[in-house]
Amino acid sequence: MKLNERLERAEANAEGTSPSARRTRGQTGTDPLVHLKRRAQEALFAKLGARLYDPSLSEQELQEFVTTELNAAMAEEAVQLTPEEARALASQIRDDILGFGPIQMYLDDPTVTEIMVNAEEAIYIERDGKLIETDTRFMSRQHLRRVIDRIVAQVGRRIDESSPMVDARLPDGSRVNAIIPPLAVDGPVVTIRLFAKDPFTMEDLVEMGTMTPLVAELLWGAVTGKLNIIVSGGTGTGKTTLLNVISSFIPEGERVVTIEDAVELQLSQRHVVRLESRPPNVEQKGEITIRDLVRNALRMRPDRIIVGEARGGEALDMMQAMNTGHEGSLSTVHANSPRDALARLETMILMAGIDLPSRAIREQVSSSLDLIVHLTRMRDGSRRVTQVTEIVGMEGDTITTQDIFEFDYSAGVDGQGRSLGTIVPTGVRPRFTERLKDLGIELPPQIFGTPDLAFVNAGLNAGGRDR
C-alpha cells in the first residue's frame, strides 16, 4: 500500500469520515505514521517560529531551511520507513509547512471553484456548482491559524483579535476571506474563491452554456463601441469572470485603469494600470477606499475605468466618470435583476453623503449607463446570462429600460435537473445600434431576432422572377 493511501486510511480510522464522526470517535490515532507526521510538524513549527513569515528570506532559502530541519526532525524518530516512504512523508509535511496544509490539494485541483473551511474540523469545496463536504481536516486550530497567517502575510495584511477579519489573495489571484474568534464563534473560518489558472475566453463561456453566440456578438459590439456596461447578479454567479471576459474586447492602444478591493481581473491588454484599495492599519489610519481610487483614476488620463465591484459611495464618482468622457467603463454590482441593480445604484449614490433628489440621481444613472448584463446561478449550479437590458432614458421619475435578451425558462429541466432553457432575443432592436453604426460597428439584425430585410427583399425579388 502506498504511503499516501496508508496515511489517508489511518487518519480516516483515527478521525472518522466526517466532522460529526470525528467528534464522536475522538481524534487520537493508533497508526505510528499519523503520530510521526504530527510530531514532525509540531517540532518544525517550534523550531521555525517567526522565520516562516520572515520577508527577508527568499522562497528558495525558506525551502532549504525547512528541508534541513525536517530531515533532522525525522532522523530523531524511531519509526522505520523505507526511503520512498520517508521522501513521500517529508513531501507531505513540507507542503503543510510551506503550502496551505490540507487545502493545498484543492488549490491545485482545476475543477474546484471554492474552498470553505469551517474551523479546523470541516472543509467544504464547490465543484460544478455543487457543495461537497470533504474528509480532510486541519491537525488543530493552531495549524489552521498558521495557514491563515501565512496567507495574509504574503500580501502585507494582518489578522488578530484587534483586526479579526481580512480580505487577501493568493499568489495565483484567488480571493481569500478569513474571520477568526471572537467574531467566528466556533473557530477560524476561511473562504477561498478560486480562479482559473488559464482565464476563460468568450468561446469558453459560449461552450459552457453561459451565453449564446448572439449574446457574445452583442457584447463584443457594445464593448468595442464604448458603451457603459454594468454586470449584475447574486453572489457566486460569475460576475467577475464575465467582466474579465468582456474586458478582453477592449482594443489595444487604450489606457485602462482597473480598481478593485482585491486584484482579481486578468486583462490581456498591455496598457493596463491596476489599483487596489487598502484597509486601515493598527491605529485605524491610512485607509484608501475604492472611492478614493476612482477619484484619483480620473487624474490618470484613463480611456476606460473598470471598477471590480461598486458597493458604496464610489458609485457616484463612477457615474460622473461615465458622463465626463470616460465612455466604455465597466463595473459589477450585486443585484437580483437589472431593475434591482438600478435601485442599488441609486442607494449607493446616496451613500456618498451628497443630498440629491431622487430624480437627479436617476437622471444621472440613466444618462451614464447603456447596458446591464444580468447573471443567474441556476438550481443545477450552472451560471447563465439571463437578461441583457438596455437603459433607454427617463419617463417622468422612472428610468425606462427594455430587454434585448431574456432567458426562456419554459423549456424546463432534464433528468439530471439541468436547465434546458437558453437566452433568446426579445425582437427589440436597441437604440444604441445607430450609435454603433456611426462608429463602423454593424450588428446583424439576426442578433435581435429580426430578419435581415435586405435578404428578405432579395428572396422576394428572386421569387418574382421565377414566377
Please give a structural write-up.
The chain has 16 helices and 15 strands. The longest helix has 17 residues, at 32-48. Helix 3 (32-48) crosses helix 5 (83-98) and helix 11 (290-297) packs parallel to helix 12 (314-323). The protein has helices at residues 3-15, 19-25, 32-48, 59-75, 83-98, 104-107, 141-153, 202-208, 213-224, 239-247, 290-297, 314-323, 338-350, 358-368, 432-438, 453-466; strands at residues 112-118, 122-127, 130-133, 165-169, 175-179, 189-193, 229-233, 256-260, 272-276, 304-307, 330-334, 371-377, 383-395, 398-407, 423-425. A hairpin with a 2-residue loop joins strand 13 (383-395) and strand 14 (398-407). It has a 9-stranded mixed β-sheet with strand order 9-8-10-11-7-12-13-14-15, sandwiched between helices. The chain has a 6-stranded antiparallel β-sheet with strand order 3-2-1-6-5-4, covered by helices on one side. It is elongated, with a radius of gyration of 27 Å. The chain has 467 residues and is an alpha/beta fold. Helix content is 38%, strand content 19%. It folds into 3 domains: 1-98, no CATH class; 102-196, Beta-Lactamase, CATH 3.30.450.90; 202-454, Rossmann fold (3-Layer(aba) Sandwich), CATH 3.40.50.300.
